[in-house]
Amino acid sequence: MDTVTGASSLVRALEDAGCEVIFGIPGGAILPAYDPLLDSMKIRHVLVRHEQGAGHAASGYAQATGRVGVCVATSGPGATNLVTPLADAYMDSVPIVAITGQVSRSVIGTDAFQEADIRSISLPITKHAFQVTDPADIPAVIAEAFALAAGGRPGPVLVDIPKDVLAATTTYTPAPPVRNPRVTPAANEIRRAANLIASSRRPVFYIGGGVVRAGAAAELRTLAERTGIPVVTTLMARGAFPDSHRQHLGMPGMHGTVPAVAALQQADLLIALGTRFDDRVTGVLELFAPNAAVIHADIDPAEISKNRKADVPIVGDCKDVLVSLNAAVRRAPVLTSWWAYLDGLRDRFPLGYDWPADGKLAPQYVIERIGTLVGPEAIYTAGVGQHQMWAAQYVGYERPGSFINSGGLGTMGFAVPAAMGAQCGVPDRAVWAIDGDGCFQMTNQELVTCALENIPIKVAIINNGNLGMVRQWQNLFYRGRYSNTGLSTHQRVPDFVALAEALGCVGLRCAEKSEVDDVIMRAMEVRDRPVVVDFVVGEDAQVWPMVAAGTGNDEIMTVRGIKPLFDEDL
Amino acid sequence: MTRHALSMVLSNVPGALARVVVLFSTRGVDVESLSLDPTERGDVSRMDVVVGLPAGRSPDQLVKQLSRLVDVKSVVAVADPARDQIGA
Ligand SMILES: Cc1ncc(C[n+]2csc(CCOP(=O)(O)OP(=O)(O)O)c2C)c(N)n1
Ligand SMILES: [Mg+2]
């Protein structure tokens, strides 16, 4: 038991919790904590340029490493700037701990300077929030916050600490380790699941981000190969099963592949693991997988039967569930005609794109080449929009955690700070942010952080001159009336190359097919600075296939007006 | 709307009630009555609440969502207290 300040206690507690990097910005209320931070030998503080960047960086770090990400902000505006990343991490079940300064205890509730009730503001977007009122509690609260963030279904946890609590003299008592109870999957449900799997004719593994969070990719592969059952991976699960694997049908959902969507629709059994039947996957719920029985395993009991009633509900960590299923499944189902049907769809409806009629670069080609040249050992992040969907479709993912994006909240501006966080966690891997010209303008200031902190990420701006995804909807559903979706980025406002240089990065530009490989290779050669490549691409490219919002998955269109599952009897 | 009675035990800490009430509002749950009483233990309170759920939504789901909250120590849907439909 040592006598310390609350601030020193906080830093020690963070060290004891295994924290090695913090993303943050100081300010009045959190200032006491920054003093002992200067002396920490274990914790690196990365000074971001906006707290939103700190939050997404913590998320990128967490998703790249599997550890808890940490961000720090001061009270008031610092704390409210964390709202978006907290909501983002909540939706995508990412373990982060956000530490905010607060005004001193004596003035809480008086509208003091830079007072914001962040604990209340963050209620619906955090797993839990602590406000520390006794400095002696700091070690226990931090230990508990880390355990809560990582345990069960992961998510964000807020720790709000008043300035006078940080400044107070207290004692440091190391917190006893917090144990996260782990539920064992119920044996009878595992048995029922195994029986259903053995007798199914048209089963499919519907894999969600929970499999990535649980680190269960190897167990999934074992079960998939033993049973021969086809696999689809959602946006949050890209990489949980290798794209190159013969049994992988791709991503389901609004911009999924025809075989993946058809597999779910025609299935007689969905083996849904760590997934939540999100509307972007199911389309109109009543029309989703109409003839399928459902095995649904998730660590969060509240997700099971939330949107689709499960016939076999299994509460448990996906890894435990898969280990149990691997032991219980003795007989592989006979799937010859199922595979004949699915392979037929694969042949007839592969992912593909047309080159723009105006001779401009195809965005899909750029992303495909990045994936090929940079390879599956890298980590890719994405913003939100068309480029995100193409990044999900045209990069081949072979490893869990190699694609990090904002799935649930759909947060524009996620790519750059998430890449920064990921690169801090895995310095030896290449990290590429595949970003939109719109998204990039929301958070590119973190490139300054990257340049100064020696975080050499690469950013590929898929510059289509527009808020492309919104424009696509205007094209399809608003008679091509393009209201407020032009960005003037093709007129070079801003000039992304000049901007990149101003931010301390190498700026490159590419507008020709023949130069794509060359510019990617040049970007890969730069190791001492971040690189931004402005890929100037056609503005009319659209994301296909597409299930229009408000329709059933059977109405998937491969291009405008062509509905292969709906129009033909397959 | 269907009506359901829930009985909960909450930690007696600041913010616990707020979290429960915000969950009701986030999930579109109508709160008809709510009472919070201290228990002899002191570190927990007892909360009884009658809620209205939109048609088709089960109280089970709500119970599970409430169970996720750190400060909710227990929650059960108590047997229908002779009330079925509200409005209708
Ligand atoms: C913070 C935020 N604001 C608005 C939106 C709505 N939105 C979704 S995609 C999109 C366009 C994104 O444009 P860009 O980054 O250029 O990507 P593109 O679709 O062109 O590839 C917008 C505005 C959002 N998802 N997030
Ligand atoms: Mg764009």
Automatic annotation (TrEMBL), chain B:
Q: List the PANTHER family hit by this protein, alphabetically.
A: ACETOLACTATE SYNTHASE SMALL SUBUNIT, ACETOLACTATE SYNTHASE SMALL SUBUNIT 1, CHLOROPLASTIC
Cite a single Pfam family from the UniProt record. ACT_AHAS_ss
Q: What Enzyme Commission number(s) apply to this enzyme?
A: 2.2.1.6
Please describe the quaternary structure of this protein.
Dimer of large and small chains.
Q: Where does this protein come from, organism-wise?
A: Lentzea alba
Domain ACT intervals: 5-80
Which GO biological process annotations does it have?
isoleucine biosynthetic process; L-valine biosynthetic process
MF GO annotations:
acetolactate synthase activity; acetolactate synthase regulator activity
Checking PROSITE patterns in the record gives:
ACT
Kindly list the GO CC terms recorded for this protein: cytosol
Record-linked InterPro entries: Acetalactate_synth_ssu (IPR004789), ACT-like_dom_sf (IPR045865), ACT_dom (IPR002912), AHAS_small-like_ACT (IPR054480)
Q: What is this protein called?
A: acetolactate synthase
Q: Which reaction does it catalyse?
A: 2 pyruvate + H(+) = (2S)-2-acetolactate + CO2
UniProt xrefs under Gene3D superfamilies: 3.30.70.260
